[in-house]
Design goal:
heterodimer, A: mainly alpha, elongated, B: 229 residues, Spore Coat Polysaccharide Biosynthesis Protein SpsA, Chain A, 7-stranded mixed sheet, 8 helices
Amino acid sequence: MKGIQLVGIIVALYLLVQIYINYRRKNYSFRRALFFSLLWIVVLLLFAYPPLAELALPFLSTKDVIMSVLVIGIIILFLLISEIYQQIGKIEKRVEILVQNLAIEDYLKGVISENKDDEK
Amino acid sequence: MKNSLEAIHVVIPAYNEEESVGMVVEELGRLDLDLVIWVVDDGSRDATSEEADKAGARVVRHSVNIGQWGALRTGFMLALLDGAEIIVSIDADGQHDPKDLPRLIDAFYKEKADLVIASRFFYDGKPEMLRHRRLGIRFFNKLLKIIFRYELTDCTNGFKVYKAELIKKVLPKLKEAQYGALEFLIKATKQDALIMEIPIKSVSNIQSSKGRVKYGYNLFRTIIKSLFD
C-alpha cells in the first residue's frame, strides 16, 4: 500500500465518522447521511483497492484508469459544490428570517415603550 | 380621493438611500390619501433611517442587508399585523413619482384587481432607463409570456399596489430574498390573481443594481426554479 492510499483511507474514514456524528446530533437527515456515507465509502474503496476504478471504464468510455479516477473526482467535486450551494441558500434563508424577526420585534418594542411613556 | 375606511399601507425598502428616501416619504405624505408609510431600512450604512424618520415614516431597521425582497417582506408583515387591506410598494431611490399613486389606487378599486403594476413601458415613447436594462426587462416579459402565458410589459417594476389577501396567500410560498419580484408574480398568477398594469413615467436611476448582469442572472434563476415549485 502506497502512502497516498493510506492518507486517502484515513481522510475517508474521518469523513465517515463526521457524518455519523452529524447524524447522531440530528444535523443531517437520514437521506443526506446515507448519500454522503455511500460517497465516502466509494472513495475509501477506491483508495484501498485502486483497480476498482477499472469497473467504471466502460461507463465512462475511457481506457485509462487515471482518466476514470479524474472524471469521477470531478463529478464528486460538482456534487459537493452543489451541496455547498444548497446549504448556503438554506443558511441565507435562516439569516433572513432571523433579521426580519429581530427588526419586527425591535419595532414593536419601540411602539410598546412609546405607548407606556404616553400613558405616564 | 380619500379612502378613509381602509388605510393604505406603503412599504418602501431602502438601502443607502439617505438622499432620496425623505423626499419620497414627504411626497407620499402630501397626497390626498390616508397613508401609513413604512420604510424598511435594509442595513444601510448611511442616514437612511434618520431621513425617513424625519420625513414622518414608520421606520423599521434590519441589522444587516438581506436584500430588497427581504425588506419588502418585513414591511408587508408589519403592514398585515397592522390590519392593512391594501399595500403599496415603491422604490426609495425616487425613480417613481408618488403622484402616480392615486391613479394606481383608482384602477385597483375600479377593476377590483388583486395586483396593479405601474408600467414604464406603456407610456408614449421609450422609458427613461439604460438600454441594456430596457432590453433585460423586455426579455423577462417575453420569458414570462412563454413559460407562464402571462403577458406583462414591466414585470420587474417595484411600484405596485397589492391586495393584502394576495400577499397573505403568496408570502409564505416565496423562497427568494433578493429577487422575489418575479417569483411573487409567478406565484400570484398561480393563485389566479387579477393583475393589471397602469402606465407611469419613471426617472432613470443609473446607480441601481437592477441593470447588472448578476441581477439579470438571478431573475432568470428565479424563473427556472419557480418552474419546479
